[in-house]
Structures are given as C-alpha cells and as structure tokens.
C-alpha cells in the first residue's frame, strides 16, 4: 500500500511538472505620437472643420488632441487621436464636452490616413457652477446618452453617498470584499436592467487607485436613489 501511495504521488508530481504554465498575456507597448503623426492629424482636422463650417469661420477646439498609441509586441501600432469639444451647458446644472475619436492608417495614401473611428462620440459631463459659464475641469464622468440629464445631475451630486452605502454590500460579494476600503473615483453613469421591482436602474462605474473597477447598481424609486447591488473586477 505504501509503495502504491508513493507511486501515485510521484505520478501526480510528474504530471504537475509536465503541465505547461498558462501563457502570459501579450505585453502591451505604448509610445508618444511622432511629429509626422501630430502634423498629419492637425492638417486633417483643420480641413475637416473647414469643410463642416460651410464657408463660415471654423471653430477650432480649445484643447490639443490626445493620442492613445499602443500595440501588442510584434504587431502594428494602433494610433488613435481624441478631440474634446468646447465645454457647454448640456442641461440645467450640467456641463458637457463631446469627445470624438479618429484612427490613423499608416498604409493609406498620405492625404487619407486619418478617419473617424466606428465608435460614436462620447459625452463627458460634470456639475455646473451657479451663474458661471462651463469651463474645462480635470475630472469628467462618461455619460450614457440614454440616461436623462436630471438623473445624471442627481447621481453626480449623490454618488459619494451612494458609494458609501454600497460599501456595506461589498462584504457580501467575494469579488468586492477586498476592495471595500479602497478609494474610488466615479468614471461613468449608464442605464441598467430593471430589477427589484424598480423600472429604472442605473450603473455607477467607479475606478479605484489600484486600477480595479466597482459597478454599483442604483435603484430609483419615487425620485429617490438607493445603492442596490455591487459587482467588481
């Protein structure tokens, strides 16, 4: 019996040694845009604004484009340029910028290397200050256009309290319990599927200082908002 047990252990150990470790995820490389990429985008975007102004003086963006450039090792670079519109009031108490994205094709003819991406322009919002025009802020929140502006305003005002109450729910979720005490920043507001007898639900997406994500499901009932459930990555 002892010999059989040892044989089984050795066999298991042999299988463990023979098993190949899981492959590491592909390494993502990033870089800054080249001068050629910057210049070609400036020319493309200026021509786009002139064409869309229909003879009027084009209104150029207040901010320089932001570039996201990355690739998996050994593959071509993906070059994305993002441009934010000027801040403006979207609704009472709500400021908005619209972010448009453009992609670069290095193999295309020189005068047609930039084009709009398939992604629809995104809305980025923040609370307006009383009797003040909207101006750019450091932190904005991605807003799904399916959410009513009045709900967005209420959720922006109450998100810290909703997160505080949701932390009690973290303890009941094995994927969230270790994140219960982390500091979070609100990143996005989106609609969620109806639940708990409430026809209107929202998802507040928070990001921690450790790059983890917590989604707080919020229930709206008779004009009040309550944290209802949580999920974490």
Automatic annotation (TrEMBL):
Signal peptide range in chain numbering: 1-18
Key words of the record: Signal
Keyword Signal: yes
Protein name listed in UniProt: Uncharacterized protein
Source organism: Rugamonas rivuli
């Amino acid at each position: 019996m002892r010999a059989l047990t040892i044989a089984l252990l050795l066999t298991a150990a042999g299988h463990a040694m023979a098993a190949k470790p899981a492959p590491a995820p592909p390494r993502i490389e990033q870089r800054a845009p080249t001068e050629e990429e910057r210049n070609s985008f400036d020319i493309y975007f200026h021509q786009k604004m002139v064409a869309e102004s229909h003879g009027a003086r084009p209104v150029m963006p207040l901010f320089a484009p932001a570039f996201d450039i990355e690739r998996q090792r050994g593959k071509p670079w993906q070059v994305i340029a993002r441009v934010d519109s000027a801040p403006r009031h979207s609704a009472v108490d709500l400021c908005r910028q619209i972010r448009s994205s453009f992609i670069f094709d290095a193999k295309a003819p020189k005068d047609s290397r930039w084009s709009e991406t398939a992604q629809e322009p995104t809305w980025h919002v923040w609370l307006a200050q009383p009797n003040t025009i909207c101006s750019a802020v450091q932190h904005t929140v991605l807003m799904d256009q399916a959410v009513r502006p009045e709900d967005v305003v209420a959720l922006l005002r109450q998100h810290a309290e909703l997160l505080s109450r949701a932390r009690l729910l973290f303890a009941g979720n094995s994927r969230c319990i270790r994140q219960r005490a982390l500091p979070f920043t609100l990143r996005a507001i989106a609609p969620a599927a109806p639940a708990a007898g409430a026809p209107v639900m929202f998802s507040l997406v928070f990001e921690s200082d450790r790059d983890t994500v917590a989604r707080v499901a919020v229930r709206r009932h008779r004009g009040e908002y309550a944290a209802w459930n949580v999920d974490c990555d």
